[in-house]
Design a protein that fits this description.
With 359 residues, this protein is α/β, with parallel strands linked by helices. The protein is 44% helix and 17% strand. The chain is built from 13 helices and 12 strands. The strands form 2 sheets. The protein has a 6-stranded mixed β-sheet with strand order 1-3-2-4-11-5, with helices on both faces. Strands 8-7-9-6-10-12 form a 6-stranded mixed β-sheet, with helices on both faces. α3 (65-80) links the parallel β2 (51-57) and β3. α12 runs antiparallel to α13 (349-357). The protein is globular, with a radius of gyration of 21 Å.
């Protein structure tokens, strides 16, 4: 962690040096996309920009909710700062692998990134795996109440302290709610027995699917369409918008969707804490205002696209088993002991109770 901190500080000093010298190259030049174009970046800076922030996600689709959120961040920040802060937006052009984005954040090559929490388990913050627990939240409303309330503030504190201020959670974004999709419909956990399922790498996620009788399998997101098409895996789980944009529902092993709603996802809008602390109070205020607007935009798009994406996959021929027709209580019965064990093992019983009492 000390080595990582040294790298972070070096990156922060580099960014601050650029800003302090009044350099405009960083603020006006966007890195090209992998195909040589700059279609997924926005880097034209206001003429009076004194500081440029680089915000990035790993999603290349311009229709992804992250894209809308990042665009709103740029729009609002450049407006409220009167052009004193410019924003370069990278939509997959700094890397489609979240690990790449985290590395760039650590090195100061990115100012803010959108990332799933799981990577922190490998750098000494096992507590963040609480976000991966299935059936932790019952609805988008419950999720918002928890993340924008006491629980969310507590997790910001945990991450900041355990990473030595290397990572500061600026806000909580969503990647919608995840469902099962595969080669056959399922209504109960027993229907999954013996089926391979592509899952997230989280240990608690894999424990849940094993409890259902399925066989968790690791497949890179970019390779999953082919894996479903060729029968390498029997099924997968993700949100409507994500698998719709990748057309997984058009494969034989992806066309049956069951609304298990097992994971109301949390994504972190992260900034380097040392860099944030180096800013003036005025700059912090501008950034905080832009983050609030971007978060509202990203969530609104997530909720809207849930319905639109569902309609799209049905129109494409996918077969949906609705939430009301699934034995959700049977799935929850397998998830609750995993939640309890995780909380006990990681001294997070109080945090788990915050979530449960907010229902």
């Amino acid at each position: 962690m000390k080595k990582k901190l040294a790298l972070v500080l070096a990156g922060v000093m580099t960014v601050m040096s650029l800003a302090g010298c009044g350099s405009k190259q960083e603020a006006t030049t966007a890195a090209p996309a992998a195909d040589g174009s700059a279609a997924a970046t926005e880097g034209a800076a206001p003429a009076n920009a004194e500081l440029n922030l680089i915000i990035a996600s790993n999603q290349t689709s311009l229709d992804n909710p992250y894209s809308f959120g990042m665009d709103k961040f740029k729009e609002v920040l450049e407006d409220v700062s009167g052009g004193k802060i410019s924003v370069t937006v990278h939509k997959g052009t700094l890397g489609e692998n979240e690990n790449e984005l985290i590395e760039k954040l650590e090195m100061g090559a990115a100012s803010m990134v959108v990332a799933s929490p799981g990577f922190m388990t490998s750098i000494g913050v096992p507590e963040v795996d609480i976000f991966s627990l299935n059936y932790l939240f019952d609805s988008f409303e419950h999720w918002e109440k928890c993340l924008d309330g006491e629980f969310g503030e507590r997790m910001k504190q945990v991450v900041n302290e355990k990473t030595g201020n290397n990572f500061r959670i600026m806000s909580y974004w969503s990647s919608s709610v995840r469902d099962y999709y595969g080669k056959k419909p399922v209504k109960t956990p027993a229907d999954l027995k013996g089926m391979t399922i592509r899952t997230q790498s989280s240990q608690v996620q894999q424990e849940f699917w094993k409890a259902c009788g399925a066989i968790p399998t690791s497949v890179a997101w970019g390779e999953l369409y082919q894996a479903l098409q060729q029968g390498v895996v029997d099924s997968a789980e993700n949100d409507y918008t994500s698998f719709m944009l990748k057309e997984h529902h058009k494969t034989d092993n992806g066309k049956y969707i069951t609304e298990t709603h097992h994971d109301y996802t949390t994504r972190l809008l992260l900034m380097n804490g040392h860099f944030y602390d180096s800013l003036t109070e005025e700059q912090k205020g501008w950034i905080n205002e832009a983050v609030e607007a971007a978060t509202a935009e990203e969530r609104e798009v997530v909720y809207r696209m849930f319905e639109e994406s569902k309609e799209k996959v049905i129109a494409d021929g996918a077969i949906v088993t609705n939430y009301e027709d699934v034995d959700i209580e049977a799935f929850k019965a397998l998830a609750l002991p995993i939640q309890d064990k995780f909380a006990a093992d990681n001294n997070m019983t109080a945090e788990l109770e915050m979530i449960r009492s907010a229902k």
